[in-house]
Amino acid sequence: MDQKYVDFALLKASQLIAIDSPTGFTDKAAEYVKNEFEKLGFSSRFTAKGGVLVDLGGEDEEDGILLLTHLDTIGAMVSSVKANGRLGMTPLGGLHAPGLEGENVKVYTRDGKVLEGTIQLPNPSVHVADDFDKAERSWKTLECVLDEDVNTKEEAMALGLSNGDIVALDPKFRVTDSGYIKSRFLDDKLSVSIALALAKYIADNGVTPKRKVWLHATVYEEIGHGGSASVPKGVTEGLSIDMGCVGDGVECTEHQVSICAKDSGGPYSYSVVSALIEAAKKEGADYRVDVYPHYGSDVETTLHSGYDIRHGLIGPGVYASHCYERSHKDGVKNTLLVLKGYLGI
Q: What is the value of pTM for the model shown?
């Protein structure tokens, strides 16, 4: 796997991550993904739910593989416009309030305005607040301070603000000289970009997978029903390409690809996990097999929806998941190697 495909994945990740797409607000990101696959020569269509279903080719249509990534991210929604013109918020997906203090955001109104702001405590100045260190950091206490001259609810609402408006965090994407990739929303936009790099590899080299391969970029993974529909006829296996967990109790690092044997939903298909391990060995990928204590994937929702398929999960190692995340170019390459070997291309 040439380094140019890793570089391509990082370029696409930087572009996709720059498009705000919290769960329920994904149309622009989905349009970007659809267009990028079509530029590479692959037919694609929007699903009714707003995801992107891509035909990556292949021979055996009765034993097909569905790759699942997701382009929706965690975020927040305006839940109240306060008397002082500041905004109360509720999370979209598993965004945890501790650690959000001081984060820059964009607020998208229903009439198309984009307003900037910052997440803060009600009394955030350490030179003023008596209880700054002990103050609770939660969705009940944190608020969005708009970068607008508003001091009342009426002034804020005059800008077009209302409950239900989307609050998107600044992702702060960057790649260090040492190869680390730092950003919010590497889960799962890094793996969407890996899928794009895989498609480019297929197109550049004129290879045809032995089995029919589909890709579904879902848009509701972060709230648990992204992969619950749109499984093409003939698919017998589903493989989520998401993030590999990095932390205490798991072995994967940011430099590796993680093959998940079990997560919160139970064990993955023994045969699929075994095939992924063999693919990693065949391609010389640096991998680890891990058990994730707090995790669920798109392909598990596919099974819960009643589809009769085998399932698996892989992804580049991602540190500090659902926070300011970190991966590495090596993890991207190793994930691509496993996909190459697993698809037999």
A: 0.97
**For residue 52, is pLDDT > 90?**
yes
List the alpha helices (DSSP H) in the chain: 3-17, 27-39, 153-157, 186-205, 270-283, 298-304, 329-343
pLDDT at 312: 98
Contact 257/335 with Cβ under 8 angstroms?
Answer: yes
Using the predicted structure, report yes or no on whether residue 1 has a pLDDT greater than 90: no
* 3-class state of residue 333 by DSSP: helix
221 part of the active site: yes
Which amino acid appears at position 304 of this protein?
A: H
Task: Indicate the burial class of 323 (C-beta count within 10 angstroms; 0-12, 13-18, 19 or more).
Answer: middle
From the candidates 36, 103, 143, 221, which is the catalytic residue? 221
- Which 8-state DSSP code applies to residue 73? B
The answer to whether 259 touches 331, Cβ cutoff 8 Å, is no
Indicate whether 115 pLDDT > 90: yes
In this prediction, residues 209-221 reach a mean pLDDT of: 98
Instruction: Please state, in angstroms and rounded to a whole number, the distance separating the CA atoms of residues 1 and 3.
Output: 7
CA–CA separation, 300 and 322 (whole Å): 19
Q: Which helix (H) or strand (E) covers residue 146, if one does? A: strand 143-146
